[in-house]
Q: What sequence folds into this?
């Protein structure tokens, strides 16, 4: 099934760039000492604590983490993506991602984009990301970067809030269709 994704507010967001370097591991994103916390809003209070303990207080909804190479390396803890999402991060933009972080982010509904030009983005730059067009506009510097957009099927998962809410939505729709067919 193909779903046409419009260029609307779900697919275009704007916010501030929070710049980090290469090899940002999951322990820097969400320190292991907090693994006993299970509530996502509580996890968010420790987002990026290994780099900037004040990050959760300063980040605003739809702000972006902008990184170098291999963001999310280290352990496979999904709490790293969870804490960023619930802290309000609109997307993570990096030169490359650790494979398991990439998958965890999608599964949890956190958009991620690969951009080779992250060195041109500075901390505090205002960015506008169009997930459908595959563009990152740096409104501070007047530059636009083209990236490969996430495929439609992944954007639908993200828009639904992650893989589990997406599957629940699909199953509910199938159940509705099945029960409508049974009544015919």
A:
């Amino acid at each position: 099934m193909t779903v046409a994704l419009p260029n609307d507010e779900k697919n275009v967001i704007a916010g501030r760039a929070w710049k980090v370097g290469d090899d940002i591991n999951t322990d820097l994103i969400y320190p292991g000492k907090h693994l006993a916390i299970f509530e996502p809003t509580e996890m968010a209070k420790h987002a990026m604590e290994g780099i900037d303990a004040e990050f959760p207080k300063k980040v605003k909804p739809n702000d972006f983490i902008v990184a170098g190479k291999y963001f999310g390396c280290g352990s496979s803890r999904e709490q790293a993506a969870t804490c960023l999402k619930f802290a309000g991060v609109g997307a993570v933009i990096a030169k490359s991602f650790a494979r398991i972080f990439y998958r965890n982010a999608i599964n949890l509904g956190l958009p991620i984009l690969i951009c080779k030009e992250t060195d041109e983005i500075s901390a505090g730059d205002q960015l506008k990301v169009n997930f459908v067009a595959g563009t990152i506009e740096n409104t501070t510097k007047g530059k636009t970067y083209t990236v490969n957009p996430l495929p439609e099927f992944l954007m639908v998962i993200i828009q639904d809030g992650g893989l589990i809410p997406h599957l629940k939505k699909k199953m509910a729709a199938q159940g509705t269709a099945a029960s409508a067919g049974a009544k015919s």
